[in-house]
Putative competence-damage inducible protein (Caproicibacter fermentans), 854 residues
Amino acid sequence: MNAEIISVGTELLLGHTINTDTAFVARELSSAGVGLLYSCTVGDNPERLKAAVELALSRSDVLITTGGLGPTGDDLTKETVAAAAGKKLVLHEESLRRIEEYFKGRVLGETQKKQAMLPEGCTVFRNDCGTAPGCGFTTDAGKRVVMLPGPPFELIPMLKNYAIPYLTQAENAAIVSRIVRVFGLGEGYVAELIDDLCACPNPTAATYAKEGEMFVRVTARAADEAAAEAMCEPVVRELQKRLGGFVYGLDVESLEETVVKELAARGKTVATAESCTGGLLAKRITDIPGASDVFHMGCVTYANEIKTMLLGVPEETLRQYGAVSPQTAEAMARGIKERSGADYGIGITGVAGPGGGTEEKPVGLVYLALCDGDGVKIREMRPAGRYRGRGYLRGMAASNALDMIRRSLQGLGGVEQAAYSQMKKGG
Amino acid sequence: MNAEIISVGTELLLGHTINTDTAFVARELSSAGVGLLYSCTVGDNPERLKAAVELALSRSDVLITTGGLGPTGDDLTKETVAAAAGKKLVLHEESLRRIEEYFKGRVLGETQKKQAMLPEGCTVFRNDCGTAPGCGFTTDAGKRVVMLPGPPFELIPMLKNYAIPYLTQAENAAIVSRIVRVFGLGEGYVAELIDDLCACPNPTAATYAKEGEMFVRVTARAADEAAAEAMCEPVVRELQKRLGGFVYGLDVESLEETVVKELAARGKTVATAESCTGGLLAKRITDIPGASDVFHMGCVTYANEIKTMLLGVPEETLRQYGAVSPQTAEAMARGIKERSGADYGIGITGVAGPGGGTEEKPVGLVYLALCDGDGVKIREMRPAGRYRGRGYLRGMAASNALDMIRRSLQGLGGVEQAAYSQMKKGG
């Protein structure tokens, strides 16, 4: 089953909104075993939208639209798609009631009511986070059409809860997908280690790289969910065996999610002392709801005097080794652990660039120290390959810090040299 | 002149890479007065790419491709586009030399050399951040084609420095664009205030909303740059007059850029005390290169005891008013200013959700306090409209903090109630 996405919205063509919906829909389709061959974006223009819909219906099995379901005059997706597919729009009473409820007694304008007009005979997807419902239907030619709202906080739950089940139930097969997350190994290297697993047609295993990390997705297709799960299981176990301590989590979203969960499970806490990352590590930890159980305190000590004042880094250490040194990182980690009373203290210091580098301490040099009670572990990030910017470098430094905490929690050895220089191919 | 973007790359169709290139190219085209009518994404598949290129050349004046210029076997953009446009690929000696230099004497494989093969007669765009050059040419039918590499850190400088000048020089007109950035007013409200300016064909003024902020872009087209600039000037001044203190900057990228620049210009410093934002404010300040001149210290005081220990927030204040209160925010701001010796101290405390809300202190309630020497200013964010998630709420809290510093620096009055609930239309 091959799909195509049409994103509708002039704001996307002006570039002030980044199209994250397409990536989200693509990932969910891929998990569900649906291949995506094209995606395209058109503005709020009925002629161009009509042409795009006709093209999609001529070449793809499934058409998914995002955006243009709302109440305003430039929300034209339903009208245009229904006309292209030869369907009439009819009033869906339940959706109208839900919209009325949403506005709690205020008088509904015609434009609001328009949102309850849906293609005749369609399956309606309730909007649990807004007013415009989505829907799915099959054209006379047997093509499947799914329409979703544009705002991500409306689209994401509707896609997961209603649209994907709608698409897969028609498949008469259960699809189960598992994610094996890896930090510290390049995608190319992992692909070589597991190429035999990637060659298997069911379950499939595929590698993906993203911002200095990578993961393997294992997808099985079977008659029911239990059978599909059972097919994934041995492949996931084999991946864990081959990739060892570089696997940081199964079916999690991020290093910070793993770290917060593992700290909470063990009743442990962490405190952060950041220089070059400037608060990014604390921010990522506190991105996770419930972080307050495991994180009580962080310091951003950007100036040398503040490292001394807040963390007790000896002036002598700063003078002798400089702010960017393993000695300073260690003193920061020890200082924050002691002052906070946390089980883990982490210190980060480095040259994030673009300026400020020297021959001895180039842009990209970062030292991380983890004080975990057993002593202090140091990780060094050395610049390798080309400079990918301040944001990337700070992100990799925070990820390495999270990985050090994770390895300590899981009782694994450290990796001395951070493998952060996995460059993407050019072009 | 109407353009179309084709993004090439199977990774984009799997959804693990969000397509940020398209938004970036779209914005630059829009600044240059080029309208974008379509964008689409195809995988590394020559047949589908060929069909997409043929369609684009049949309906658009300009085709811009991103991705697929690299050395590997699935990098097929140049071959496919050149064939569709009836051009031969020939070796470009200078590009080959640059690639050889890049690899500093290592023996070049055929695949690396392939990157120097470019359409006959094209204008070559040097890749200042990688190996694969880009290029621009005109087809026999008078259509303009531009090919750019996929990685954003290669694409962005090439687009700005070579591709946009290449496209606009052909226009025989200078285009100048100014950005007026606004915080604290909704897009709809601003659009009403300036609708007469938006109706003018040259210079144009248009409003854009993005993550709780909005901006107005003024674009003028004239015979030369000086003339275009002179046309923008009175419109920008009029916008400043009508929008007053809600304009936080001209031709800047973000609130944090404005704040760091204005602090530096006045030789002032700021220190941060964060609870619910968990380091995000410090992170955003230190995203700006050179922040170390104006930011020396930040504290993330997630637990009550830490607020008392690090910032001296009285236990009595926490007991009587709670951690989420104007009193605690004020004590945090006073405490961080005093301990850091900075000119400005800012405190943030709130309920970021999704859990942790009560009837009295619901999810979304945030208090911000700024201590600037003259006293303390308080801003309250009250939940309004629907909850848009922890990330959005924390982002708005950090933006409000930056806006308070900015207003104080610019000698403006505060706004008591943060206008953070500007909801985007549904659908």
Observations:
- Chain A has three domains: 2-169, 174-250, 255-409.
- The radius of gyration of chain A is 26 Å.
- The longest helix of chain A spans residues 390-409.
- Chain A has a mean pLDDT of 90.
